[in-house]
Specification:
Its cofactor is heme. GO terms for molecular function: heme binding; iron ion binding; oxidoreductase activity, acting on paired donors, with incorporation or reduction of molecular oxygen; steroid hydroxylase activity. By secondary structure, the protein is an alpha+beta fold. The protein has 25 helices and 11 strands. The model has no long low-confidence stretch (mean pLDDT 90).
Length: 536
């Protein structure tokens, strides 16, 4: 029937082409028939003829495809797409701005992507991040260029780049040396934990996060409490006190940048996000002043910041791009930690029995007036399990890789030149891994099955070449922050006039998430805190 209609339209066009201009209804009819033919071929006929190709999620507008949806609530869209394919967990494709993305949700397939780093390249995604954060084309070329052997003759080159790697790899190595277990990690962790420890006391419990203050109790915003204390501790550990002199409101500006950083991650022009644009101008000025200050005056500077700053200069990157790079690595150091701390605290407070159990377990790590991170890590299995269960429920990050050569995965052929997308949230809610309680918060889940933390279906820190080196520090920060708070304060949820407590915060899925999202902008977790008599 459709072929007959197309044949008649074609013959009509040959006999009188002007009809399609003079009679727009005829043109509309022909275009409508062509559109129906395209849709039926794309989503009904082609999948039957080519079963080895990952099937496409149907869309209505050619080229544009699912672009609008993927830049909004992509988590719900991917979940609906899995339902559309009856949750067989085989690769399927989505269309975004003319590009094809293969969505990978099977844990075994995800492991394959991470292991085969030459077939599934991370470089393209990283280059997009560099562009989004504002590095120039020349700076990005410098970032990936491997120096010639003759360029490594200087003593500085032998120290900063002893293995003749490109700048990106040099920075990656610096972060691994800083953040993987060892003396440098211990020093950085102790500094951050010390700052957090000093902030969580009744005498210091004041600031923008305090909503109401009474004689013996205060109401605080958990969202702002986590943001302010963790960001302040992180930036002081990395840059010392000097950067606060260059921009006294730097914590406020970093909060704004964190809320809007999705624009950088997904390549959206920041000029169209006014709050981000203005915050970035202030942050650029502060970091620029900082890197132009002689090293001798940058007291309290973290080892990794000094190493990265020296490397950027050594490779000859322009000043604007050096500022952008430092801001990007600074943002990565606190962004997901802030959100994860908020959700961990939220889940614990909403489960009073768990809160009491965690108090009992973690008290020895806090009772001497300092935070004993080693004790929390090695002798607090319930805290460890709660931490992992919270990450399982809240992780919304995606991993993206470029397919460098044709490859078969789950009997589906992935074509070179396209990209694969790994939605971590779907891994963490897969019933085949987590059972019928996949959507429930079970703080003892990892306590009962300790091997779950290394399961291929649990990927809160990514994997492969992009496996987050900061995972040890993040855990120490979050567990130390929460353990100190619940041991030093009685924490309750205020109720309204009807005796009802506030609803549990809802995660913000209204905009793209580069990692762990906070709650909706108009939501928060309000806490009533009073000093504990047993442990102040």
């Amino acid at each position: 029937m459709l072929l007959g209609a197309l044949q008649l339209a074609y013959l009509s066009f040959l006999s009188d082409p002007s009809r399609f201009v003079l009679e727009p209804f005829v043109l509309a009819g022909v275009l409508g028939v062509l559109y129906i033919c395209w849709w039926q071929w794309k989503f009904s006929i082609a999948p039957l003829l080519y079963p080895e190709k990952p099937p496409s999620v149907p869309y209505w507008i050619p080229l544009l495809g699912h672009s609008w949806t993927m830049f909004g609530d992509s988590a719900s869209f991917i979940s609906r797409s899995l339902d559309y394919f009856n949750r067989v967990y085989k690769p399927f494709s989505v269309q975004v701005l003319g590009d094809q993305l293969y969505v990978i949700t099977c844990p075994d397939d995800v492991s394959t992507v991470y292991k085969r780093s030459t077939v599934f390249s991370w470089h393209g995604r990283m280059d997009m991040l560099l562009y989004g954060w504002g590095l120039t084309k020349e700076a990005r070329r410098i970032s990936w260029r491997k120096p010639l052997p003759s360029e490594l003759d200087s003593d500085k080159g032998k120290i900063l780049n002893p293995h003749n790697k490109c700048l990106i790899e040099v920075i990656e190595d610096a972060y691994k040396m800083q953040l993987l277990p060892g003396e440098r990690l211990d020093a950085m962790r102790n500094c951050i934990i010390s700052n957090i420890n000093d902030s969580i006391s009744w005498s210091n419990m004041f600031g923008p996060f305090v909503l109401e203050s009474g004689i013996g109790s205060r109401r605080v915003s958990a969202k702002d409490l986590c943001r302010i204390l963790i960001i302040k501790a992180t930036i002081r550990t990395m840059f010392g006190d000097l950067i606060f002199q260059y921009e006294p409101s730097i914590v406020e500006q970093l909060i704004t940048m964190n809320d809007k950083a999705w624009a950088y991650v997904f390549g959206f022009p920041s000029i169209f996000v006014p709050k981000l644009y203005h915050a970035r101008k202030k942050l650029d000025a502060a970091v620029r002043a900082y890197i132009n200050t002689p090293e001798a005056y940058r007291q309290g500077e973290g080892w990794v910041v000094r190493r990265v700053t020296q490397s950027l200069e050594y490779f000859g990157m322009d000043e604007d791009s050096r500022v952008s790079m430092l801001l990007m690595v600074l943002w990565a150091s606190y962004s997901n930690t802030v959100s994860a701390a908020f959700w961990t605290l939220s889940y614990i407070v909403y489960h009073p029995e768990l809160l009491e159990d965690l108090r009992d377990e973690t008290r020895p790590a806090i009772e001497n007036g300092i935070i004993d991170s080693e004790y929390l890590d090695k002798h607090c299995p319930l805290m460890d399990s709660t931490f992992h269960e919270c990450l399982r429920l809240i992780s919304g990050s995606v991993s993206i890789r470029r397919v460098n050569e044709d490859v078969v995965m789950s009997n589906m052929k992935l074509k070179a030149g396209n990209s694969v997308l790994i939605p971590v949230r779907e891994l963490h809610y897969n019933k085949n891994v987590w059972g019928q309680s996949n959507e429930e918060f079970k703080p003892d889940r990892f306590l009962n099955r300790s091997n779950l933390a290394s399961h291929s279906g649990y990927r809160p820190f990514g994997g492969g070449v992009s496996y987050c080196p900061g995972r040890h520090l993040a855990k120490a920060e979050i567990c130390g922050f929460v353990a100190t708070l619940i041991n030093r304060f009685e924490i309750t949820l205020p109720v309204n006039a009807q005796g009802e407590r506030q609803p549990f915060p809802q995660m913000d899925f209204t905009r793209p998430s580069p990692g762990v999202s906070l709650c909706l902008e108009n939501m928060d977790l309000v806490l009533e805190v009073t000093p504990r008599k047993k442990l102040l």
